[in-house]
Design brief:
Helices cover 32% and strands 25% of the residues. It is α+β, with helices and mostly antiparallel strands. The chain binds adenosine-5'-diphosphate and magnesium ion (MG).
């Protein structure tokens, strides 16, 4: 018999296989691995904690604007707090720097604290080290990569903390803002798409480099959204995580998936690839009972964040995306997995 070769481990199988264990502290840990934030219950309050790492060459280009890198490093963490309905309070910053470049650090700190101050989120500690220098046999020593890891903490009244697991059959599926621009910006930068007008490049680059975490909307949806997740790996991939955690299925209407005018100028297959599987959107995907549509629209008005109803939670497993004629849209599109690409 031929030896069986184990399939390569994806990011999520790897986490499930090596790092997911039964919680020993049930009274304290309401949610652990597998949600946007770990949720810790202390009396009437729940603390939401999340950690995200950004690496040069993996999450951003080493020569990207340092101010934007500082902004994004915190934004992606605040986005996870928003999903949980938590108010940002403080964060820890761990840095591995290839060099102590004063101009770079000044700009990085400006971006970081610009966002931190906007949300009253205070830096309370961290760690700083020089990134290792690798000596390739024949080449110049190469320092790096620049690595930024932020752990952010927020709080939410215990009864209002939100998880990925609260979706109910019959709920509406809502999405904030618009999706796909960040993926289009990346594809444009890598020369993988043509026809993005010069005048449009700046707006999509902003979506990629300076995502706005939907913190105010996350707070306004307390007690309204039963389940939520932020879109970091692609709409369908993150929806699949929410559905799996909730034990339900969903039907998504492609025509209702909000896309910017810039993305809508692209051919439909590119729109679908970017909006459904692109990632780096940092929009909130959430479920609300269909009787509360007016309340969701009210939350959208008070926070100034657009929301769209893109589908329905159904019984069973899996998800279907339907076009305007009710025909299924190709959904084998994958979201981002660090070990699959
Ligand atoms: P998000 O996109 O919301 O930041 P991820 O997709 O990065 O979440 O991670 C999925 C889940 O796995 C999260 O609950 C995260 O905390 C957890 N996780 C990721 N890496 C590890 C690890 N090395 N050890 C333990 N838990 C992890
Ligand atoms: Mg998340």
């Amino acid at each position: 018999m031929a030896p069986t070769v184990p399939p390569p481990l994806g990011e999520f199988e790897l986490i499930a296989h090596f790092f997911t264990r039964a919680s020993a502290q049930r009274a304290l840990v309401r949610a652990g691995i597998g949600d946007d934030c770990a949720l810790l219950d202390f009396g009437d309050a729940t603390w939401a904690i999340t950690s995200d790492m950004l690496l040069a060459g993996r999450h951003f280009f080493a020569d990207d604007d340092a101010e934007a890198i500082g902004h994004k490093a915190l934004a992606v963490n605040l986005s996870d707090l928003a999903a949980a309905g938590a108010a940002p309070r403080c964060f820890l910053l761990a840095l591995a720097l290839p060099a102590a470049d004063e101009a770079w650090l000044t700009a990085f700190a400006r971006g970081l604290f610009g966002l931190a101050d906007a949300f009253g989120c205070e830096l309370i500690g961290g760690d700083t080290t020089r990134a290792p220098t690798t000596l390739a046999a024949s080449a110049e020593p190469v320092a790096g990569p620049l690595t930024i890891c932020i752990t952010a903490l927020g709080d939410v009244p215990r009864a209002l903390a939100r998880r990925r697991s609260g979706a109910q059959v019959g709920d509406d599926l809502w999405l904030s803002g618009a999706v796909g621009d960040a993926a289009l910006a990346l594809a444009h930068r890598l020369g993988k798409v043509n026809g993005v007008a010069a005048a449009d490049v700046q707006s999509i680059n902003l979506r990629l480099q300076r995502p706005v975490p939907r913190v105010a909307l996350g707070l306004a949806l307390r007690g309204l959204a039963g389940a939520a997740i932020d879109i970091s790996d692609g709409l369908l991939a993150d929806l699949a995580h929410l559905l799996q955690r909730s034990g339900v299925a969903a039907q998504v209407r492609w025509e209702d998936v909000p896309r910017s005018p810039v993305l809508q100028r692209q051919p439909v297959p590119i729109q679908q690839r970017c909006a459904l599987a692109g990632g780096d959107d940092y929009e909130l995907l959430f479920t609300v009972p269909c009787g509360r549509r007016e309340d969701v629209l009210g939350a959208s008005r008070t926070t100034g964040v657009a929301v769209n109803r893109i589908g329905t939670i159904t019984q069973g497993k899996g998800l279907a995306v339907l076009d305007g004629d009710g025909r299924p849209v190709e959904t084998s599109l994958r979201g981002f997995d660090h070990f699959a690409q």
